[in-house]
Amino acid sequence: MKPTKIWCLLLLGLFVLPLTAQEPVVIDSLANNLPNVGLNTTSADLVPNQGFTLKTLLRGILGMAALVLIAFLFSANRRAINWKTTAIGLGIQLLIAIGVLKVKFVQVIFETIGSVFVSILDFTRAGSQFLFEGLVVDMDTFGYIFAFQVLPTIIFFSALTSVLFYLGIIQKVVKGLAWLLTKSLGISGAESLSIAGNIFLGQTEAPLLIKAYLEKMNRSEILLVMVGGMATVAGAVLAAYIGFLGGDDPELRLIFAKHLLAASVMAAPGAIVISKILYPQTETINTDVQVSQDRIGANFLDAIANGTTEGLKLAVNVGAMLLVFVAFIAMINGILGGVGEYTTFNTWISANTPYDSFSLEAILGTVFAPLMWLIGVNNEDVMLMGQLLGIKLAASEFIGYIQLAELKNVANSAHFTYNKSVIMATYMLCGFANFASIGIQIGGIGSLAPGQRKTLSEFGMKAVLGGSLASLLSATIAGMILG
């Protein structure tokens, strides 16, 4: 099918899908009796979604225009930008969001896939219970212990992903998605394989699919590989997010699974849109879609062992990272709080902001609040949303999701007012775009293509910007539709 025909179908879909949509719901069809997502709160505590209106449409358009403008300002070649690719990419994001949030049969598809992730959490729990027993099961006594409830999920899902990769299942799915991206958005086969792979794999695993092409890729292609890694998350940590955002409630787990999956899928066209604005393609590209034939492990059992080992490394790294960053944030807040107490600045902060005292969160919330307003966040929640974006950039999305779990609980002194903010934050945080990921990509992708290491280091900050803008695009579109 020619790109022109695909573009026409996308435009048609934008008009047809809203007509087939359901009436406005608070979150989705599963949440009729549980309108607002909260780990420890009920639906009566948050202002429900208002539904799609002219006002939310205009706010959404403003947000998308602002994000595209930011990318345009940082573009390496503004005259070479392919605005048709930009329009098609945004159209695909809109179609996915409308489908997930409003169209019943699309919701069913994502809910079905989400239920697989929820089942994986239950399977992991069986293994965790065997090792830790009461520390996992008896939460009334021991509480929710992050190390025992969340980190084992990363290990098991990593092993499962390794098996699926060994069997060639992931490669087949990725190749199909890559073909669609190549035909609709006109990117190279290697780029589309990497982007599609990022939906399931991490930012250093997905490039394995294009290992044979990495050394030959031009600068525009390399940036897209990097932005794609920054804009998405690996399946292993996606399952972990579902676990601690949804807690023990199976309905909440399924709701978050659906939204996190949608965020990861929406990030693929979003990453292409932003990357091709930041560094437009000006060279001839190869549109052949061929997956590298490298396999993880010599046999089935070796694949499980390799995946388990890699998952253990990732889980230990995540645990150590969280310990250090949470401790550093506490230390910084202790210092800032002391300064605020000495200068009586804490009193002003408490009276005029959602925060009790001068803190890192208050600074980040203030800095990013204008951007949050531009993408459609309600006035009452702009600082809290800005805080989450800042924490994600400075520390990691894991810390951001931990803070989100607290902000959606109205029992806490600082909490969201609107349910829409919870959903938008879920989409916004779904990506590896932070400063630490620059080093991870230089090391990981650079080991596969040593000749590209210089380009990788030059594009580090631009990749963080691109990944962040792609995630913000997804959040903007979701907020526009939810109202």
Query: H/E order of the elements?
Result: HHHHHHHHHHHHHHHHHHHHHH
| Weakly predicted, low-confidence segments | 1-44
Tell me roughly what share of residues is in helical segments.
over 70%
Tally of contiguous helical segments: 22
Oligomer: single chain
Radius of gyration: 22 Å
- Give the percentage of residues in beta strands: under 5%
Mean pLDDT: 86
Structural class: mainly alpha
Could you list some keywords that capture this structure?
483 residues; mainly alpha; 2 domains; 22 helices; globular; disordered N terminus
List the topology elements.
Layout: H1 3-20, H2 54-73, H3 83-102, H4 104-132, H5 134-137, H6 139-142, H7 146-149, H8 151-167, H9 169-185, H10 189-198, H11 219-231, H12 235-246, H13 250-278, H14 300-343, H15 345-352, H16 360-374, H17 382-394, H18 397-407, H19 419-428, H20 435-448, H21 453-458, H22 460-482
GO molecular function: nucleoside transmembrane transporter activity; symporter activity
Main location: membrane
Subcellular location: Cell membrane
Overview of the structural elements:
By secondary structure, the protein is an all-alpha fold. It has 2 domains: 3-26 and 50-298 and 431-482, no CATH class; 315-422, no CATH class. The protein has 22 helices and no strands. It is globular and about 60 Å long. The relative contact order is 0.15. Residues 1-44 have low confidence and may be disordered. Keywords: Cell membrane, Membrane, Signal, Transmembrane, Transmembrane helix. One of its GO terms (molecular function) is symporter activity.
